Amino acid sequence: MRLARVTLIWAALAAAVGVPLALAAASPLLAWRDPVYILACFAGIIALGLVLVQPLLIGGYLPGLPAYRGRRVHQWIGGALVVTLVVHVAGLWITSPPDMIDALLFSSPTPFSPFGVTAMWAIFAVALLAALRRRWGLRPRTWRIAHMSLAVVIVGGSVIHSMLVEGTMETVSKATLCTLVLGAAIVVMADLLTWRKRATPRRESTARR
User: Which of 28, 58, 109, 133 has its CB 3.0 to 4.6 Å from that of 138, i.e. a possible disulfide?
Assistant: First the structure.
């Protein structure tokens, strides 16, 4: 029974990420696009899938991964997210530098650009904080607040950006993936906040003794 549950959870995750990729690969819009643009598009789709995986890892919702290993994989996935994002932006830059300059300067006429760029800078900020938190002497509480705040920006910006883009992604699968990303982030953040609220009185009670 437990094996069946584990298999079902991992299969559902694979489908949530894999189906949008497969449907995007079958998009007729790809027939008129350069390979660099196609690579950039799929890097963006993969990045959105990784945004789904991140809260599931930190919340311990993926079976077969102990808490310490889940946190380590969370760090690796964070690095992979940065790489896919760089590929996404670099590919779009090579394809159309003026459009990317407008997007980065928040002067693009397309409504999805500001959300994508904001999410991008938030991802880079998290990666920078994670790399330098010990050197800067960030306290665990400060790190958690910064990380969670930036995660809200990342999830919100990524979901809105993806939903507004009319491109290679199939509409229903894209909406489903975005809903899962948003739902996973909300559930995990709520769980973490509840756990910390419960843990705080215990620590205060222990300190008084």
Answer: 133
